[in-house]
Amino acid sequence: MYKINANYQKLPGSYLFSTIAKKVAAFQEANPEKEIIRLGIGDVTKPLSKSVIDALHKSVDEMADAATFRGYAPDLGYDFLRNAICENDYKKRGCDISPDEIFVSDGAKSDSGNIQELFAEDNKIAVCDPVYPVYVDSNVMSGRCGTYDMNSEKWSDIIYMPTTSENGFVPEFPKETPDIIYLCFPNNPTGTTITKSQLQEWVDYANKNGCVIIYDAAYEAYISEDDVAHSIYECEGARTCAIEIRSFSKNAGFTGVRLGFTVVPKDLKCGDVSLRDMWARRHGTKFNGAPYIIQRAGEAIYSEAGQREVREMVGYYMNNAKTIRSGLEEAGYEVYGGVNAPYIWLKTPNNMTSWEFFDYLLENANVVGTPGSGFGPSGEHYFRLTAFGTLENSEKALERIKKL
Ligand SMILES: Cc1ncc(COP(=O)(O)O)c(C=O)c1O
Question: Which of 28, 120, 190, 398 is buried most deeply by CB count within 10 Å?
Fold first, then answer.
């Protein structure tokens, strides 16, 4: 008789977005005349840019011709894309990364969920709280997190590093030394980030204590301030302690197209075992590559026109972020994020819980956001609005909120 992976049974239900959807549907049914503005889910709304569409059309045509048809992609990704990534995302920023340390994938979600396979089951992980849920849940599935306590909403074997307004959303070094540290900057959900020198401290900490940092830089394109690192490899010593995960979703609108990559430097070694070689082996065994046409589309964002289009797209969303942030400030809210990330993180007024504020905003302003408590216990009394809507809707939502 077969047995299941019982770790899956330990996972509490993921009710966040389904509860939001149910509440919104019920409200709409009861109030069919109300126009609801959705600033909840972190999906993009702008279409793919011209350079990307042109590259897609061209590569689709290549697939129709026996002379240019491509089958399985190389395990690590096509050279044209890995060279473009290496040159533009790393060499231009002074980072010492080579193309054979870059692994092209179908996105940052899969990579951030799969990367834990490289590590032993008894490794202890540390995460920021609140957090992008994939890091925790993927480790739970592998039996690495102990038991879940419904009251504290915490796993017994995870080290939580609260990031709240009290510590300026900068995680502090935990009392107990972790083995694997997940960091995501600029951050989802808080929309805040840390400076390059603060990140350097984490790199030094990891090297000193024999930890590995899994660095999720999915929102790198939204950085607007000079003292923020676009890559962890801008920090000295990161090659011996850090893995970086990137995505084409938020900079180029590839959420439905699917493309990302992970960097595992050759200097990252556990004893004399290379993590880069382990990831190459895993990739070769379990992944058959992102599609050729999608990798060509990804390459297109690195052309001069492509880079301009990325800046325009990011600029559009960041203008929404500014509109939301300044509107909330005018309305008297305590607001964070929205400067280096497309998320605005606000403190709920009058000590409302995150879900109380969700209902209040839906019923009185007909605006949908995401309750902060859905991202971890330290997210309670916070609320996330995203800048991924249209400018018109962002403005309209803020007009309504100001009138409350
Ligand atoms: C922090 C973070 N990492 C990764 C992802 C997923 O990126 P992708 O679309 O490349 O899977 C998201 C998506 O919202 C995210 O917020």
Answer: 190
